[in-house]
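#struct-pred
JK: can someone run the complex with iron/sulfur cluster? inputs below
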Amino acid sequence: MPPPRTILPNKYLDYFVIRPYEWHQNKIGYYHVSQIGSSHANLDPKKHSGPCLRDTFFIFIPIDKKIQSLLTTGNFEVGNIFHGHVEDIKKTNNPFHFPEFPLQRLMDRNGQKLIILGSIDLPRQKILTFKDNANKPIPIHITDLKTASEFTFPYDNSEDNQNPTHFDQVTIYGFWLMNYYLRRKYNRLVDLTVAYLNKHEAYTGEQVRKYNNEAAKVIFVDFIKRAFILDKKIRQFMKILKEYENKLLKVGPDKFTDEMRESYHIRLNNCLPDREPHHWCKYCDNRFRCRDNVVYDCDVRKYSIEEIEVFYKNETGKNAIWRGKHTKAFDSYSYGFKVEGDEL
Ligand code: SF4
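RT: done, structure tokens with the ligand placed:
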């Protein structure tokens, strides 16, 4: 179902409340599980769907930040409304549901400190009956809610149709909960569920995996490692940027030569984390900078969605057809020119 094409101005801000405290504050040193994820070097880029550390890096540094469009903001809000609704219903039916269970931990590695954050949408304990064994740990289940479109809704529960990124996130939460918050002697995490809510029609499907603490540990450790790598790159970048700004002040803009500027740009570009190409690269806001391996560059190619639709129309003679949130034009013209084959 395509989004409505209308000329009515979006009155989102009049009808929805912006939360005063958001998880994703994008403060250096504070990293949310969904921003870091775990590596998928073994996966075909077409199957890997992020997060990409290079993309996350751009969120934390002061570049010409794009104000989030009302379309994207509205999309998130629809997800929040769905989440709140489902969590309320679940809590009403089972008092041992603990919606939005927050997680935080201060990590210190040789003096490098950072805080990791997360939130489990729906952890629940089994409601006990007299048939249960009093000496056995209480079974626990964790559910992560995802809003999906017709395009992203999974087909079935087979391994091939499970999104590794979504399961990584819920696996990290599971390991974190069982090893830092609860005692495994009294609680047993049985399985991990990713529940998909189709936002166009409230169709809801679940994918479930058994929990394995050893396998989860590998993913959790990788997540921590990635958080430290990203933190180091961002702090390095900010240090050079400060040096650059101080030097510019000291020397004065008139005497600051192109060579001097260039040498700082090279050092800043070197702070970029490696590319982690994946399924959604062509929709990534940073794809232009990423292809050129630059942070600041006035020549970096940039085109808006509307411009890309025009390229598409001029070259193919066809109108850009809506498919999910993006137009068909993105499949081949996401960089403003025809992308060949499987290039991302
Ligand atoms: S284009 Fe792909 S590899 Fe580059 S920053 Fe975006 S998601 Fe990462």
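RT: quick notes.
The chain has a mean pLDDT of 85.
The pocket of iron/sulfur cluster is lined by residues 52, 54-55, 275-278, 281, 284, 286-287, 290 (CB under 6 Å).
JK: thanks, will look after standup
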